[in-house]
Amino acid sequence: MFSLNTRESYFTLMAFLLIFALGSCKESKPTDDPTVKPEENRFTKVVLTEGMDEPMEMTFLPNSRILFVERKGGVKILDEKTGELTLVTTIPVNTKYTNKEGAVREAEEGLMGVIAHPDFEQNHWVYLYYADPVDTKHVLARYELQGNELVESSKKILLEIPTQREECCHTGGGMAFDQEGNLFLTVGNNTANPRLGTSNLDERPGHENADDQRAPGNTNDLRGKILRIHPEDDGTYSIPEGNLFPVGTEKTRPEIYTMGHRNPWRPTIDSETGYLYWGEVGPDASIDSIWGPRGYDEFNQAKGPGFFGWPYFIGNNYPYTSHDYETETFGEFYDVNNPVNESVNNTGLRELPTPVIPAFIWYPYGVSEEFPLVGSSGRSATGGPVFRKADFAPDAPFTFPAYYEGKWLIVEFMRGWIMSVSMDENGDYQSMERFLPNDTFSSAIDMDFGPDGALYVLEYGSAWFRGNSNSRIVKIEYNAGNRKPNVHASADKLAGAIPFTTNFSAEGTNDFDDYDEGNLKYSWAIKSSDGSAVELEGPNPSYTFENAGEYQATLTVTDTKGESNSASLDLIAGNEEPVVIIDFDGKNRTFYFGESSLNYQVQVSDKEDGSSADGSIKANEVAVTFDYVPAGFDPIEIASKQSGAESMAVLTIGKNLIESSDCKSCHQYDKASIGPSYQAVADKYENTAENVKMLVGKVINGGSGVWGDHAMSAHPQLSESDVTRMVDYIMNMNELKPTVESLPLAGSVNAEVPEGEDGEGGYLLRAFYTDKGSGNTPSLTGEDYVALRNPFLDPQLSADRKGVQLLTTPRVSFSMIGDQSYFSFKDIDMTGIKEIMFYLGISDRVGAIGASVEVRLDSPTGELLGETEKVTKAPAGGGFRPPEGMTMTEWRRQLSATPSTKISEVSGTHDIYFIFKNSEAAPDQVLVSVNEVEFKNK
């Protein structure tokens, strides 16, 4: 092609080679082929902010701003460009339940939802859904948001939903707009959790809050529904055509779009089809029973209005049985072809809409046979968006590739995965796959696409009813060209008494572009609360904190193209984290074996505060609680009960500080002295952050003129943190006592089954201490717990499985198929376990041939702890219900073969595997069905 005989040809060749070389150095971008799955490493997680106080829902504003709300009333804006977080206002909301006995505990309600109007740039409207601070109702209100100001005078109340505040739980609160400007609002059932984790069908007088037939199954009640309304400019709303009940239909509410929900969560609208999608949190029963099916969480789709079954059906329209609580008798299964609501608490139609729409995706605590990819463990379906490329501007920088077109991205609060769900041309379920399978998204309470095309995940954090340092907003960017670094920051110590040295680490940080490998730049910025900063270079520097205070260490990693990503850690200097230990007298910490009392001792030590042993930490400053936990339990409800005891323990620190100060020389608790009583102060001032700050200033600096002529002396010797604790105690004097009273640091607890329970639950012993801080450094907490369960475990609760066939009709059958099939239970304390017994069914009807069972430690091939004899027959019996006077559990055990094996001595917590053996079995032959596994300490 070229000749080197001329100067011109030489330079022509050089120009060609230069152009070729430059072209080959350009970043190669993947083609947007909808059939090609993008590389996982083209998605980058960016943490935008951390350490929020119970974030609930987010919405997007122009100019890269995110508006989100927190349960206790906080309305905040995050500016992505600057990283600045602004508290816009605090909405007064209710956050407590008060039961008929007057006991108070944390509520699931508060400020629950937020969304910006589709035309926000023109009208500046945002909608908030919250629990009224005074009246028992939930409120949907519209405000104008001007800059960072929520204009109070602009408030318009669109909708009010009467509720009850005696019993937990379920509020909903998710919102979404469709293309026509209709607003969808999810509303929870506002009903007590049934103690057995099944359906809510209690019609007895005085138990109305335990009957979901009065709300989700009631066509004339807005609870347990998804509403569809059209907000009007004047602050009212109209009813769009096509809702479930036409306007004017007797005994119905026209706002209802779908009904029959327990706790519908985050909704989304497919902009192309108009279909509605949401996550739904189900009940907690872990096994099928005479009540009906076990609990399922659901991800649901509505192609139009309809009835989704609760409280009569769940999952794939599995029916519950009718139950007469007065006589404790069970009736027939509810008829999915003819659903009727005959409850005395029903104010709506008797005949409910048909057809009953089954769940789109449903899954239990255990392994799902229909959707095995979802795994097994705790469950709480959140929801997520449907991706449509047309929803984003052509220049949106992070728009997902065409592979995800029309797919529904769903996130799970408890399990931490995101699934990509594919539908066929009719919108019916087709398949699912993990999105970013190597990542987890802890406690994701909301997820949506932003205007820039990135996927945003709002993470609540690990502990209920409190602010969490690991709550955060995570942004997932798709990078078709250069990829940002993936940053991971850690430290070997996050808190300590000064001076303390911490070793930072960037281990786990990487970049998937080859040209960046080994060429990343690492920079650490350690900022204190006063604004000063220290810069450190390199991936793994050390730093010694000499001054007390709160710090944030931010690792920024920059690649060769100048693209950077960051991750942050919060550190506290001047305060060591307390250590809490429950000494359980050497007993097993997994199982309760029927002891009438259980001895315990709580030991608390803290470098600054001292210890419980020397009396520096007083017993009433430690929350020690003991609860019966039903077989089907709601962890949120347990947390709400215990949080009251925790709060009282923290407040008692303030009382003890008052007792040790000179304050009592002028003030008494309930009577006036030289100064006003503490009760009078609590009555006079509303318990707000502003009033607490004002009173702290008066205590430290002195004051006069409010309660008479006598001036209050200044107390400059007291630290601001100690005075804040004292004022917090005073301001909370009007709070009623918590549901669960704190126990002493040592003693015994009576393991009694509460009236009305079946005894198949367990017990939770928990100790919690929040230290006093040090100077003005914040408090830190420590906790320990012992969770005891019934020693009879249902195999449906197992984790790792091979060769398991689970059938649910006509009754539950957990069958082992073929030689060497197995299942396991995770995290079992084997201390003191002497024997394991199996309750097995061996039915001729399915051709079961029997088996022996090996018990192994931590894997299917782990240490052999014991092996049963081979069993080939089970006691004769039949029928679907036990004889009169015998429980289902007793009857099932009587009809089981019961091989057992002694267990080699093992201590500590392990995964326990059960391998079922019969070398004569065909690969698909049933060996046995497993009813229960019993762990014995004798």
TrEMBL record:
<dbReference type="GO" id="GO:0030246">
    <property type="term" value="F:carbohydrate binding"/>
</dbReference>
<dbReference type="InterPro" id="IPR005084">
    <property type="entry name" value="CBM6"/>
</dbReference>
<feature type="binding site" description="covalent">
    <location>
        <position position="712"/>
    </location>
    <ligand>
        <name>heme c</name>
    </ligand>
</feature>
<dbReference type="InterPro" id="IPR009056">
    <property type="entry name" value="Cyt_c-like_dom"/>
</dbReference>
<feature type="domain" description="PKD">
    <location>
        <begin position="512"/>
        <end position="571"/>
    </location>
</feature>
<dbReference type="InterPro" id="IPR036909">
    <property type="entry name" value="Cyt_c-like_dom_sf"/>
</dbReference>
<keyword id="KW-0408">Iron</keyword>
<feature type="region of interest" description="Disordered">
    <location>
        <begin position="190"/>
        <end position="221"/>
    </location>
</feature>
<dbReference type="InterPro" id="IPR035986">
    <property type="entry name" value="PKD_dom_sf"/>
</dbReference>
<dbReference type="GO" id="GO:0009055">
    <property type="term" value="F:electron transfer activity"/>
</dbReference>
<dbReference type="InterPro" id="IPR002324">
    <property type="entry name" value="Cyt_c_ID"/>
</dbReference>
<dbReference type="InterPro" id="IPR013783">
    <property type="entry name" value="Ig-like_fold"/>
</dbReference>
<dbReference type="Pfam" id="PF00034">
    <property type="entry name" value="Cytochrom_C"/>
</dbReference>
<dbReference type="Pfam" id="PF07995">
    <property type="entry name" value="GSDH"/>
</dbReference>
<dbReference type="InterPro" id="IPR011041">
    <property type="entry name" value="Quinoprot_gluc/sorb_DH_b-prop"/>
</dbReference>
<feature type="compositionally biased region" description="Polar residues">
    <location>
        <begin position="190"/>
        <end position="200"/>
    </location>
</feature>
<protein>
    <submittedName>
        <fullName>Transcriptional regulator, Crp/Fnr family</fullName>
    </submittedName>
</protein>
<dbReference type="GO" id="GO:0020037">
    <property type="term" value="F:heme binding"/>
</dbReference>
<dbReference type="Pfam" id="PF18911">
    <property type="entry name" value="PKD_4"/>
</dbReference>
<keyword id="KW-0349">Heme</keyword>
<dbReference type="GO" id="GO:0005506">
    <property type="term" value="F:iron ion binding"/>
</dbReference>
<dbReference type="InterPro" id="IPR011042">
    <property type="entry name" value="6-blade_b-propeller_TolB-like"/>
</dbReference>
<feature type="compositionally biased region" description="Basic and acidic residues">
    <location>
        <begin position="201"/>
        <end position="214"/>
    </location>
</feature>
<dbReference type="InterPro" id="IPR012938">
    <property type="entry name" value="Glc/Sorbosone_DH"/>
</dbReference>
<dbReference type="Pfam" id="PF03422">
    <property type="entry name" value="CBM_6"/>
</dbReference>
<keyword id="KW-0249">Electron transport</keyword>
<dbReference type="InterPro" id="IPR022409">
    <property type="entry name" value="PKD/Chitinase_dom"/>
</dbReference>
<feature type="binding site" description="covalent">
    <location>
        <position position="663"/>
    </location>
    <ligand>
        <name>heme c</name>
    </ligand>
</feature>
<dbReference type="InterPro" id="IPR000601">
    <property type="entry name" value="PKD_dom"/>
</dbReference>
<feature type="binding site" description="covalent">
    <location>
        <position position="667"/>
    </location>
    <ligand>
        <name>heme c</name>
    </ligand>
</feature>
<keyword id="KW-0813">Transport</keyword>
<keyword id="KW-0479">Metal-binding</keyword>
<feature type="domain" description="Cytochrome c">
    <location>
        <begin position="649"/>
        <end position="734"/>
    </location>
</feature>
